[in-house]
Structures are given as C-alpha cells and as structure tokens.
Amino acid sequence: QVQLVESGGGLVQAGGSLRLSCAASGSIFRPNTMGWYRQAPGNERELVARIFSGGSTNYADSVKGRFTISRDNAQNTVYLQMNSLKPEDTAVYYCNLALLLTKNEYWGQGTQVTVSS
C-alpha cells in the first residue's frame, strides 16, 4: 500500500512563493516518476511538473522558469518550489507517484494553492 502525504499549500499574494512537499511511503519501486498536477475549478487536471527517479524533469510551459521540482530519493519525497506566483496558478495541487514498470499510479489528497492579485 502506497500513501502520499502533501503539505505546503496556502494563500499567497501574486509574486510570492510557496513550497509544496509530498512524502511517499510503502512499496515504492524504481523506475518511477513523482510529480505535481493541478486542477482549477471547471478545468481538467493538468501536469505541472514531474521528475523521474533518475533525475530528468518535465514542466508545463506555463510554469517553466518559475517552478522547480526536486526530489530526495532516500526519503521518497518530492518538492515543488513555486516562485513568481500568478493568480492563474490558483488550483488544488495533487502529488502523483507513477511506477513505470507496473504502471501503478497513486495520488495524494490534494492541497489548495490560492494566489491573490
């Protein structure tokens, strides 16, 4: 059983910063990806950023240059440093773990990020 526990969401003014964390526990096999998705009201869930267990990263175009994803493999923890936040970044952010060999996928409970203008 895999569990993902997120922390770090909140309310921030435009231009501010937040750091999200997600700790995974359970049977976590490599190779895998850990990442962040977000869903705003009325929108579909979208990829924000993900990082492979080997270190490669992918970012949505809308966050490139502002967000940085990193991970601690020893702690099975992924971080998302969000700088220069914009009101359009407001959404519920979900942590995701994808096991690439078994195709199993796990989600966190979501954390709200609200950016005021």
Commentary on this structure:
- With 117 residues, the protein is an all-beta fold.
- 0% of the residues lie in helices and 56% in strands.
- It has no helices and 11 strands.
- It has strands at 3-7, 10-13, 18-25, 32-39, 46-52, 57-59, 67-72, 77-82, 91-99, 105-107, 111-116.
- The strands form 2 sheets. Strands 2, 4, 5, 6, 9, 10 and 11 form a 7-stranded mixed sheet that branches. The protein has a 4-stranded antiparallel sheet with strand order 1-3-8-7, with no helix packed on it.
- The protein starts with a strand and ends with a strand.
Average residue-wise pLDDT: 97
Outline the biggest β-sheet: 7 strands, mixed
Which spans of ≥5 residues are poorly predicted at pLDDT below 50? none
- Give the end-to-end Cα distance, rounded to a whole number of Å: 40 Å
Computed Rg: 14 Å
Number of strands: 11
- The fraction of residues in strands falls at over 45%
Tally of DSSP helical segments: 0
Classify the helix fraction into a percent range.
under 10%
